[in-house]
């Protein structure tokens, strides 16, 4: 089953109590709604009644600036609202910003106006939400048992040195040297994910195209900033990139290589073919170092116009919680993105990790980890039960599976102590798709046995479908 996220856009006058806000929302909320979020104008997000309404139901509440709401095309704009708050729509625009389709247009209930948009996938769902304590975590693709001891020593020393504000210069120089780039072409970030938000803030794309299925944060960030996004869905089961399928007038193109969640590694030349003057081409290489030798990486290419390569230390070094990554691109684009960052965006320990993980010795170690991963992936694939289809040709630290009755299988696996990543929150995938992290062969074999037993227990077709 595809997950649905309901976003209720709310416009309210000051001083309206929570009961009145909830009465208005309940009047329009679709039956059997999935997860619900509230969205409004930023100036109203601090209204006590609205805050209390959200808190009572446990719904997240987001406030958007008037300028962002004003950029959303809505069916029922109002000149009166525009004159009052600087955007012709609050409820409809705030509901639509989450990326869904409007199912309830602007409806007034007393002093509260509501509109409802439903999105087919929750772009903000990530594997860590599935890896609840007590389960074996195959839902998050971060190396376990890391960071290695020598890196922990570096990090501890950096924590001790954290009384001073961070100095990014050594890290920038180290990253530039590792990739043969100018320092002005290096943007240090709090994780790869930060770059997507910076792009959404710095650029005003007329036609942004995101290649799916892929990591959903780039699209979520673009939508949150009010940019329209066009999805280019690659066809399964191969999920190969056809550069000619990307609209030629797209001025922003985003794709991952290797791709999460398909684990497909596109040929570097096919990705490079997407670069052209007047376009920003964002290649999310957060998993590039999971492939030994990084054969298809474009990180060192300075000849391609508008190419921005996004990298992360999260996966190979087991540093998800540190928030550390970087981007490589033309100096003017890097400067435009940096201008959107707060001062001191990357902490002293994260900067120390950048220096330590880009030394030649660390890069050799990363390569060894990637080679071992190849062997471990082969062991996982060999152990899987026959009924399970391995989708595409996996090349990274996870594999995408197609399992009949996937949603139920995932639930049953959780009951047996295993967390795998649901596929249906990735545009283009279904409830039958499950993403599984590659772990050591012992863990993979134990998982394969649990999966086989789960499938056997679910033999009755009525229960599966
Ligand atoms: C493809 C991809 N890119 C980027 C990220 C985010 O990486 P970071 O932890 O560096 O922000 C993830 C995290 O899941 C990812 O899967």
What does this 3D model show about the protein?
The chain folds into three domains: 5-119, CobE/GbiG C-terminal domain (Nucleotidyltransferase, domain 5, 2-Layer Sandwich); 127-144 and 363-464, Aspartate Aminotransferase, domain 1, CATH 3.90.1150; 149-362, Aspartate Aminotransferase, domain 2 (3-Layer(aba) Sandwich). It is 35% helix and 19% strand. The protein contains 17 helices and 17 strands. It has helices at 18-28, 48-57, 66-70, 79-85, 91-96, 149-160, 169-179, 192-202, 217-224, 268-272, 314-317, 331-338, 348-357, 360-383, 406-415, 441-457, 461-464; strands at 5-12, 36-41, 61-64, 101-109, 112-119, 136-138, 186-189, 208-212, 229-233, 252-256, 280-284, 307-312, 325-328, 389-390, 398-402, 418-422, 433-437. Strand 4 (101-109) and strand 5 form a beta hairpin. Helix 1 (18-28) packs across helix 2 (48-57). It is globular. The protein starts with a strand and ends with a helix. Pyridoxal-5'-phosphate binds at residues 191-193, 215, 256, 260, 284, 286-287, 312, 314, 320, 325.
């Amino acid at each position: 089953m595809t997950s649905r996220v309901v976003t209720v856009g709310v416009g309210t006058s000051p001083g309206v109590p929570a009961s009145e806000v909830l009465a208005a929302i309940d009047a329009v909320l679709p039956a059997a709604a999935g997860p619900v979020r509230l969205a409004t104008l930023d100036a109203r997000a601090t209204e006590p009644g609205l805050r209390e309404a959200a808190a009572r139901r446990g719904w997240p509440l987001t406030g958007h600036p008037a300028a962002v709401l004003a950029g959303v095309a809505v069916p029922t704009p109002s000149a009166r609202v525009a004159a009052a708050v600087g955007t012709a729509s609050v409820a409809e625009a705030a509901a639509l910003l989450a990326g869904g389709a409007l199912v309830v247009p602007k409806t007034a209930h007393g002093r509260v106006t509501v509109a409802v948009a439903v999105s087919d996938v929750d772009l903000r769902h990530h594997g860590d939400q599935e890896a609840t304590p007590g389960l074996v975590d195959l839902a998050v693709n971060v190396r376990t048992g890391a960071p290695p001891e020598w890196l922990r020593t570096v990090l501890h020393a950096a924590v001790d040195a954290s009384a001073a504000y961070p100095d990014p210069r050594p890290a920038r120089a180290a990253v530039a040297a590792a990739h043969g780039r100018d320092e002005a072409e290096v943007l240090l970030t709090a994780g790869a994910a930060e770059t997507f938000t910076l792009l959404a803030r710095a650029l005003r794309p007329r036609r942004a195209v995101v290649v799916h299925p892929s990591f959903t944060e780039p699209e979520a960030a673009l939508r949150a900033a009010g940019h329209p996004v066009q999805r280019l869905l690659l066809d399964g089961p191969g999920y190969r990139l056809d550069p000619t399928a990307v609209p030629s007038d797209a001025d922003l193109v985003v794709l991952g290589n290797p791709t999460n969640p398909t684990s497909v590694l596109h040929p570097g030349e096919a990705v490079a073919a997407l670069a052209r003057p007047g376009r920003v081409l964002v290649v999310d290489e957060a998993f590039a170092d999971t492939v030994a030798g990084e054969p298809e990486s474009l990180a060192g290419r300075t000849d391609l116009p508008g190419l921005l390569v996004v990298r992360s230390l999260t996966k190979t070094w087991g540093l998800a919680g540190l928030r550390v990554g970087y981007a490589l691109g033309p100096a003017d684009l890097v400067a435009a993105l940096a201008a959107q960052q707060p001062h001191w965006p990357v902490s002293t320990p994260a900067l120390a990790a950048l220096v330590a993980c880009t030394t030649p010795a660390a890069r050799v170690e990363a390569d060894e980890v990637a080679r071992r991963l190849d062997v471990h992936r082969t062991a996982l694939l060999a152990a899987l039960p026959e009924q399970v289809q391995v989708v595409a040709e996996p090349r990274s630290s996870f594999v995408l599976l197609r399992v009949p009755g996937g949603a139920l299988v995932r639930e049953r696996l959780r009951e047996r102590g295993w967390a795998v990543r649901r596929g249906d929150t990735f545009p283009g995938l279904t409830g039958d798709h499950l993403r599984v992290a590659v772990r050591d062969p012992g863990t993979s074999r134990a998982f394969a046995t649990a999966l086989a037993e789960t499938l056997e227990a679910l033999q009755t077709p009525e229960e599966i479908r």
